[in-house]
Give the backbone structure.
Amino acid sequence: MRQRILIVKPSSMGDIVHTLPASLAIRQAYPDAHLAWLVERAHAELLARQKHLDEVFVWDRRDIRGLPQFVRRLREGGWDAAIDFQGLLRSGLFTWVSGARRRIGYTPSKEGAHLFYTERLPLDMSRYHAVERHLQLARLLNAELTCVPIERPYLDGGHVAARRDSPPIFPLFPSEKDEASVDAWLARHQFDPARERLIVLNPDCRKAANRWPTERFAEVARLLKQQPHLRVVLCGGPASRELCDEIDRLAGGGLWRADGQFGLLASTALIARSAVMLTGDTGPMHLAVAVGTLVVALFGPASPRLTGPYASDAIVLNEQLSCAPCFGRRCHLGFDRPPCMEGIAATATVEAVRRQLALFESGLGRKFARKSA
């Protein structure tokens, strides 16, 4: 009888990207299984057109009235196994509600999620990147990817001298409509890919403590746009509009504005056309990694070892203060602007972008083909 396996990973953007390799491993281990994924509506687009998934259960956390129907559909799934990659109370509850015979997750867990599992993986969360943690959990289903772990030279202060082969373990599939919307946007800006290069700046972060100072982003943008062949693009969601307005103003204008213009996968298509992305520790950083775009990432309160760009050719800048990583949403020392982010200089950041741009221009090309499913 065909196995039925449920992946529980409702959110967030970066976390879902980090779970894609484990889902591929499960598919390889169970090629004939019915493989489903439970995800929040806000992030469901990331799972569109995933050929290795048979079904996506979309949970709308704001639709209280629809919850009984959602639970009923979930319970009717006849699941053999439910594997919780989130490890929170709600995700643990979903594994239990599913009625799966095997309910798999981490221990220890936040909010007591492990109480709902039948099988638990004891794991020191402080030792492994999220991608590697999730693959260890998938091993409880005898699923594995031999191409992971990868080398990340930035963890030891190493510089990337050449683009390294990395397996395409983060499948994302913009639609033809997504690609066309980006093509039209670039055409309106008269972008010439033969002569010009896109440098994407992603200045916003959900956690305030992870944001680099606005004036630093503006200084970087001002310095980069002085190069006649570089086109500096600000990206982000609609909520980033005021921040991007301020950066554009401080940089003297002339920046290309993609903030609020695209959905998740159309934004991914734009990032895929870029030479380099400069970003804080936030979801779009992982979208850039997924499509093989070179990344310069700015880290402060978070740990690059645990959630840094999972790429062998990324550059990470961080101050490595004694109080970091603290993982705080705001500075635990009471500073309005955390010293760990404040200490990253604009000049060092521009130099890192230029190193990545030189790597891009070295003729080695892109790591992955970027085509819709």
